[in-house]
Amino acid sequence: PLIVQISEKEIYRHKVDIRAFAEEFYRVCRELAVDIPITLHLDHTKDFEVIRQAVACGFTSVMIDASEWDFEENAARTKRVVEFAHSHGVSVEAELGKIGTTDFVETDKDEEQYTVPQEAEQFCMQTGVDALAVSVGTAHGVYTVRQPKIAYDRLEAINRLTGTPLVLHGGSGIPDEMIRKTIELGICKVNFATELRAA
What we know:
This protein is α/β, with parallel strands linked by helices. Helix content is 41%, strand content 20%.
């Protein structure tokens, strides 16, 4: 039901000690006697060493974001992380396509490239990734001029071809009915960051 996450860029931006962050997460879980499934996830990470640190500190899920490279390099980097993380009982999320941004907190460039369904199928088969972040029209950050427009047909095709849990990044500012529709079409995880920072 709940995933608490921090990205590689946020770790550097806010000068967060990754071990201290994990220890505080688990301390609060104990203090609150949390009795629902809750996980600690490392979001948008490019550096394998940061992923290695997170796994050592008790993160239960990590994201390798190699989407800036071409398909083959993305798949190779993802597969390396999958093999490492799975050997430690940790799940892996990857990204295929490019999710745009309006605030540059999680990504360096505002590039958008929709995920191609057939490539998603091949990517999931090659890498064995546990979850796939897809680019279907959302963006990181605040929607001001540009408004979210989700390519539902593309999302449905990706879901049908991969059978892999899909992730929607850029959930802040998306109308509830659009979120519900994406869940019907295969989205299993929705990322919210901007609304939390604003609050």
